Amino acid sequence: MLKQKPESLSGEQRQRLAIARAAALQPKVLLFDQPLAEVEPDIRRQLRKEIAQLHQRMQRTMIYATHDSIEAMAMGSRVAVMNNGIVQQVGPARKLYSDPDNVFVAEFLGAPMNLIQGNLKQDRDWLLFSEVGEGTIELRLPVAEFPAAQAFAGKPVRLGVRPEQIAVSESKAERYSGAFPAIIDFVEPISGGTNLTVQTGAHRLSCQVTQQLDPGEAGHRLQLQMFPGKVCLFDAISGIRIK
């Protein structure tokens, strides 16, 4: 490509050239400002892999700015999520994904977290979550695992759960067991399972279940399950995680 003019190069080739020129200088720190934003998705995945391999070979600090949460999780050994220039949370990508400090982080990273409006009430050693309105979700949470949530008894909260943490229920629903009925809106078969969009009566939820369901199931009722150890609670007003 040496004899070609820059304007004759493709977007992928220009990005490869820019990265190579920066790396050739052997700097102590490399700064990437959304380097793959204008690259086609298939090429983006390949370049993402090559930048990660470059980082392993060079053993240099790389600061990588991106609006793509999948890119951040795939590449970042340490991720800082920012909103309007303010750092919301810093840590390993997996930690931020499973234990977000607030609603912004929960919605930004990976598959967006389902956020369900509801209310809490205390019943001895349990906190009972009930979805607002005509919602079908009711879940019993142990006070020992959510000690700060006792202060929110009688107040509105938001319950967060990731799509892959909702399962198809095999048992009969008991009140506050976490099992709930929902109407299937959309079915998307994927490798190893099915992506679902379901309606609870008050919310539309995204689910990723291991069962292979057919698109013809849309419109049918399905029994689903969520588990106390897999959910988060957020203050309905501030959006801050209740721990």
Q: If you compute it from the alpha carbons, what radius of gyration comes out, rounded to the nearest whole angstrom?
A: 22 Å
Order of helices and strands: HEHEHEEHHEEEEEEEEEEE
The CATH homology group name of the largest domain: Nucleic acid-binding proteins
Shape type: elongated
Q: Number of helix segments?
A: 5
- By CATH, the topology of the largest domain is OB fold (Dihydrolipoamide Acetyltransferase, E2P)
Count of spatially separate domains: 2
CATH class of the largest domain: Mainly Beta
Poorly predicted runs are none
Helix fraction, binned, reads 10-25%
Mean pLDDT: 93
Structural class: alpha+beta
- The name of the CATH architecture of the largest domain is Beta Barrel
Taking the sheet with the most strands, its summary is: 6 strands, antiparallel
Number of strands: 15
Distance between the first and last residues' Cα = 56 Å
Walk me through the structure.
There is one protein chain. A hairpin with a 6-residue loop joins strand 6 (126-131) and strand 7 (138-142). The chain has helices at residues 11-24, 41-58, 69-75, 93-98, 103-108; strands spanning 29-33, 61-65, 79-83, 86-91, 114-123, 126-131, 138-142, 156-161, 167-168, 179-190, 193-199, 204-209, 221-225, 232-235, 241-242. With 243 residues, the chain is α+β, with helices and mostly antiparallel strands. The chain has a six-stranded antiparallel β-sheet with strand order 7-6-5-8-14-15. The protein has two domains: 6-77, Rossmann fold (3-Layer(aba) Sandwich); 114-242, Nucleic acid-binding proteins (OB fold (Dihydrolipoamide Acetyltransferase, E2P)). The protein has five helices and 15 strands. The model has no long low-confidence stretch (mean pLDDT 93).
